[in-house]
Design goal:
heterodimer; A: alpha/beta; TIM Barrel; eight-stranded mixed β-sheet; 4 helices; about 20% strand; globular; B: alpha+beta; Alpha-Beta Plaits; Sulfite Reductase Hemoprotein, domain 1; Sulfite Reductase Hemoprotein, domain 2; six-stranded mixed β-sheet; five-stranded antiparallel β-sheet; about 35% helix
Chain lengths: ~150, ~550
């Protein structure tokens, strides 16, 4: 599986771990609920930990833990769910999160540019053949009226 | 009027290129109907009954003559020789071909125009007072702030996928001509106790199927905090606005369900965290203000005696001057309403020939600028009184001088069932019938200020719920019926019209309107307006007469 990360198409090194599944070695993503439940155990894991967040979750709840997380995955259940954009802005703009923020789920290639401007630096699309087109949209505009959060 | 700099121009050209690519991807089948729908709506493109409909932004209702000539050219080349002015000061073309839309946008970009965010669930075109900068009751010209908001909203990355559409209006005068109490955010320039000018901020107003009057969330906001406060409201709305039901997704529902106090607390808390990083500096405000500097008015314009003479000599001119011109802050000048409500033409429509001609008239008589109003007329804002007579003669020849501004035939009307795929019922035909029934100008003028607003469905594009007389088309088992309301207003004394009674059949609507007007004439006290009479006597006398035979 490939993704866009920091303006490059690269292989994804992270493993998705479902709520009921055993924890794995290596870099894993888990749900916010699982993070809250198994936080102590996860902090001792040998790989890096990423947390998956949906639009209805509150980024504020994770604020104190951000230093321990290498990835926040923002999951679009539908492309029109714009809450994700504010979550990304809050993570970068308010909490100054330095790790990877990845958009995933049902996002459109045509949303990649706006997402990049609110702090998302990695993108996983439903169809990986759309990645080159999505990457090129990052050059759609050379001027903007608002500041970007990077 | 604001002139684009290189960055503004580059941005709209890049947006055209982006939309061209999106359209090509869709036509090749690379993106789905659903995805393209969201992308095209954010660029003003609907799919309508007959063809796509393209809505072009009229930023706070301002146009120049060059832009009007371009609209005429587009009407001729890509459409059926006409366009339609909307209640939010925009322009619509009803017959473009989807494949040609990128070309149309490219033509528009060449005259600093675009269709960015004229529909879709995003920040829409900011609307304002059509008499901004020239009216006699102005506290401060709102247009520089409209332009600052236009830039901030344009392609805002965080707020492009809101729960629902979002509309901002700004008024700078004592009299609210921008319906700010019925916008998602309404901004009013006001003076505080220290004599400084800032904004009163209203939130949660709106029309459509749940009309609600906006509430004051902040009585006074310093100008430097304008964008941070807007951003705070938008972030709270984006995060907490309902997304489970599109009919409950507007900010008005969030404000209503949370309560103003709770909502305001969320906004204030958010605002405190961002306001220091988003201050507007005074230099930027001044630079934008400089773009709206008054034109070179002639100092001796008031010395003209010909205007008074023409008024005395020519009754038709005098009538037009009385109804279709209004006071200007510079003596010797008047603002002229160009009526798009000729009896035999759909309200708000304009032909390519008229567009070109009005461009010429604007160049000759009004510093090359034209404005659109939320009642779907145009304004030439800066006309010397000495030139009103020749201007009237030329407008009259173009069928743009019907002296009905502010009267019962100055109807706000959506395109209705004839064009719109959302509509339940026709509107244009009824508008024509009402015009035919009220063709006696003396009678029309005797009735005076009556605002009739008619929408073909619950979405309420023609703001029927705030019409003095509101007419709403409804579908009853495939038949067109109409619900009447009385007493609505979008001005300072904002009110939502009260339902008159059961809906009525299409062939009864005009009769009902003329009956309502007759009841008013019968009931009114001397000098009392229609709206004041309705407020005083209530709807019962009207109801009794309208439903007398039922």
């Amino acid at each position: 599986m490939q993704i866009i990360k920091d303006k490059q198409i690269v292989d994804d090194s992270w493993h998705y771990v479902a709520d009921e599944a055993e924890l794995e070695n290596g870099n894993i993503t888990i749900s916010l609920a699982r993070w809250k439940k198994d936080r102590a155990q996860l902090l001792k894991a040998n790989g890096k930990v990423g947390v998956r967040i949906g639009p209805a979750d509150s980024v504020d709840e994770l604020a104190a833990d951000l230093k321990d997380l290498a990835l926040i995955e923002l999951d679009f259940p539908a492309f029109a769910d714009g809450r994700i954009f504010s979550h990304a802005w809050l993570l970068r703009g308010r909490y100054h999160y330095q790790g990877e923020i990845r958009a995933t789920g049902k996002l459109m290639a045509d949303q990649v540019y706006y997402l990049s401007r609110v702090g998302v630096n990695a993108f996983s699309l439903e169809k990986s053949e759309d990645l080159p087109a999505a990457l090129s949209t990052l050059n759609d505009f050379s001027v903007n009226y608002q500041k970007s959060i990077c | 009027m604001y002139q684009y700099n290189d960055n503004d121009q580059t941005l709209i050209e890049q947006r055209v290129a982006q939309f061209r690519r999106q359209t090509e991807s869709y036509l090749k089948g690379d993106i789905s109907d659903d995805q393209f729908r969201a992308l095209r709506l954010m660029n003003g493109l609907y799919i309508q009954t007959h063809a796509p409909m393209l809505r072009i932004a009229g930023p706070y209702g301002l146009f120049n003559s060059k832009q009007f000539r371009k609209l005429a050219h587009i009407a001729r080349t890509y459409d059926k020789n006409y366009c339609h002015f909307t209640t939010r000061q925009n322009v619509q073309f009803n017959w473009p071909q989807l494949e040609k839309v990128p070309d149309i946008l490219e033509e528009l970009a060449s005259v600093q125009m675009h269709a960015i965010q004229t529909s879709g669930n995003c920040l829409r075109n900011t609307s304002s007072d059509h008499l901004a900068g020239v009216c006699v009751d102005e506290i401060e010209d709102p247009r520089p702030y409209c332009e600052i908001i236009r830039q901030w909203t344009t392609l805002h990355p965080e707020f492009a996928y809101l729960p629902r559409k979002f509309k901002i209006a700004v008024s700078g005068a004592k009299h609210d001509r921008a319906a700010t109490q019925f916008h998602d955010i309404g901004l009013h320039l006001v003076t505080n106790e220290a004599g400084e000018i800032g904004f009163k901020v209203l939130v949660g107003g709106g029309l459509g199927r749940t009309p609600i009057i906006g509430q004051v969330i902040r009585p006074y906001l310093e100008k430097k905090h304008l964008l941070s406060y807007l951003e705070a409201i938008l972030r709270i709305y984006n995060l907490f606005g309902r997304r489970d039901n599109k009919y409950k997704a507007r900010i008005k529902i969030l404000v209503k369900e949370s309560g103003l106090e709770k909502f305001a607390e969320l906004v204030e808390n958010e605002w405190l965290l961002i306001r220091d990083n988003l201050e507007l500096d005074a230099g930027r405000i001044d630079a934008i203000k400089a773009q709206f500097a008054p034109p070179a008015y002639e100092a001796n314009a008031a010395q003209d005696a010909s205007f008074t003479q023409h008024v005395a000599d020519n009754k038709a001119f005098a009538t037009w001057a009385k109804y279709n011109t209004t006071a200007h802050k510079i003596t010797g000048y008047r603002a002229v309403f160009v009526s798009l409500k000729a009896p035999d033409s759909p309200p708000g429509d304009m032909t390519d020939t008229q567009l070109d001609a009005v461009a010429d008239l604007a160049d000759r008589y009004s510093f090359g600028e034209i404005r659109s109003t939320h009642r779907q007329n145009l304004i030439l804002a800066d006309v010397k009184q000495a030139e009103l007579f020749p201007l009237w003669q030329q407008l009259d020849a173009l069928k743009l001088a019907t002296p009905n501004n502010g009267t019962a035939t100055d109807i706000i009307c959506c395109p209705g069932l004839d064009f719109c795929s959302l509509a339940n019922a026709g509107t244009i035909g009824i508008s024509k019938e009402i015009n035919d029934a009220l063709d006696d100008l003396d009678y029309l003028h005797d009735i005076g200020d009556v605002k009739i607003n008619m929408s073909g469905c619950m979405n309420g594009c023609a703001h029927q719920s705030v019409g003095h007389i509101g007419i709403l088309g409804v579908d009853k088992k495939g038949v067109e019926w109409y619900q009447l309301t009385l007493g609505g207003s979008s001005e300072n004394e904002a009110a939502i019209g009260e339902r008159l009674g059961p809906s009525i059949a299409k062939d009864q609507v005009t009769q009902a309107v003329t009956t309502i007007l007759a009841v008013y004439l019968n009931q009114r006290l001397e000098g009392e307006s229609f709206l004041d009479t309705v407020k005083r006597v209530g709807i019962t006398p009207f109801k009794e007469q309208v439903y007398a035979d039922h």
